[in-house]
Amino acid sequence: MSGHSKWSTIKRKKGAADAKRSKVFSRIIKDITIAVREGGADIDGNPRLRLAISNAKGASMPKETMQRAINKGKEKDSASFMELTYEGYLGHGIAVFVECTTDNQQRTVANVRAIFNKYSGNLGTNGSLSFMFDRKGIFSIPKGDLDNDEFEMEMIDGGAEDIELEEDFYTVTTSMEDFGTMMKKLEALGIEPENAELQRIPKETITLDTEDALKIMKVIEIFEDDDDVQNVFHTLEMTDELMEQL
Q1: Domain count within the chain
Q2: Reported pTM
Q3: Sheet holding 82-89, edge to edge
Q4: Most Cβ neighbours (<10 Å): which of 1, 33, 70, 169?
């Protein structure tokens, strides 16, 4: 199983637990709000909103909650939300890329810096680690009754670079440039992904023993638990032993 497939599997499993804490809902609500602010409330004419709504459905978000998020995006104070990224290193040279959505930049950078400092990490300058990651479109699609051969042919036609099947879920990877093309292909096929997003996939990873790797993953989770943090990407190799522990 490739690195991005492992990553998606972890995100999917963690998603079930996160949803209980409303963390996933919080992230998606921000996505919807910003999408409406930037492109309006017309789903057909706003690809980013269409994607956010699709992810909301995949997370089983109630329609009323989606509508409240759309309405909030129409309000003037929704403009206070901004998207920020932070980059740095944790122990053992593990690079970390943190994506945030916040209405208070000062609070967010203080929180992110505090986590790096507390766990012997270093917050770097923006852009310093971007070269270590490739931006890829990652789609998690329930297998259901899809015909494997036919599905794969359609995905390749939609720009898929990689297709993997595990635990009744397909993980389909595209280039960042083909992300929109794949969304249109899935819509044309009537297939609704459980989740679709641009992820930062590390070009190279670092393998640690399980004990040290678990310590790194604990810090990653602390980042993820911050209300302003949307996604955290890193260069830690997700070994089978680490996967079992998680």
Answers
A1: 1
A2: 0.82
A3: 122-123, 82-89, 95-102, 229-234
A4: 33
Within a domain: residue 139? no
How distant is the alpha carbon of residue 46 from its chain centre? 20
pLDDT in tens, 217-233: 999 999 998 989 999 99
pLDDT tens-digit series, residues 20-73: 556 788 888 889 998 998 888 888 888 889 889 988 888 888 899 999 999 988
Residue 103 included in any domain: no
